[in-house]
Design goal:
With 168 residues, the protein is α+β, with helices and mostly antiparallel strands. It has a domain at 8-113: Aminopeptidase (3-Layer(aba) Sandwich). It is 24% helix and 38% strand. The chain contains four helices and seven strands. The chain has helices at 18-33, 37-40, 99-113, 128-133, and strands at 8-12, 49-55, 58-71, 79-90, 118-124, 137-145, 148-156. The protein has a seven-stranded mixed beta sheet with strand order 1-2-3-4-5-7-6, sandwiched between helices.
Length: 168
């Protein structure tokens, strides 16, 4: 994890910062990628935590995190807490500065600190290599979401401890 440059700050967003996040997402997804407003602005924002990144004092990047309980591979009953990373966005004028990577590394560090089992996301296929660079593994086949080709990607953070069977 790279240390944040002095002119960059990032944290869990407060309710007062949500309008900045929605403006970033509007610019990137609705205006930039022609995602419909109805798809981009959904009811899941109320159930999520949001990350915001500032360059100097200007909000330029964000991501949304939702909690999910997923069945762990190889078991039928063991579930664990995962975070689903969604709506990672960096304004065009702030791109190519490593801010997307900084956001993802910050989220990974937070997941480690909170003992989260893993992260999952639906990556736009043109960003698959970007997510691989921060340790995500591609799962399954591409699919369409919001009119854009996506792929599911996962990253294990903490392996669940398996209970040993007791001898009778």
């Amino acid at each position: 994890m790279e240390k944040l440059p002095r002119h960059v700050r990032m944290h869990w967003a407060s309710d007062e910062e949500l309008p900045h996040i929605f403006e970033i997402r509007k610019t990137v997804f609705i205006e930039g990628q022609q995602v419909s407003k109805e798809l981009e602005q959904d009811s899941l924002d109320d159930q999520a935590k949001h990350v915001i990144l500032y360059e100097h004092d200007t909000p330029v990047g964000c991501a949304r995190i939702r909690w999910m309980s997923l069945e762990m591979e190889g078991t039928r009953t063991e579930t664990s807490l995962y975070w689903k990373v969604e709506r990672l966005a960096v304004l065009e004028e702030a791109r190519n500065k490593g801010y997307g990577k900084l956001i993802m590394e910050w989220i990974i560090r937070q997941a480690e600190e909170h003992q989260i089992a893993g992260l999952t996301l639906h990556a736009q296929t043109q960003l698959e290599q970007f997510y691989q660079q921060v340790g995500f593994i591609t799962e399954g086949k591409p699919f369409m979401e919001a009119g854009i080709k996506h792929i599911t990607m996962n990253k294990t953070i903490h392996q669940p401890k398996r209970q040993q069977k007791r001898k009778p």
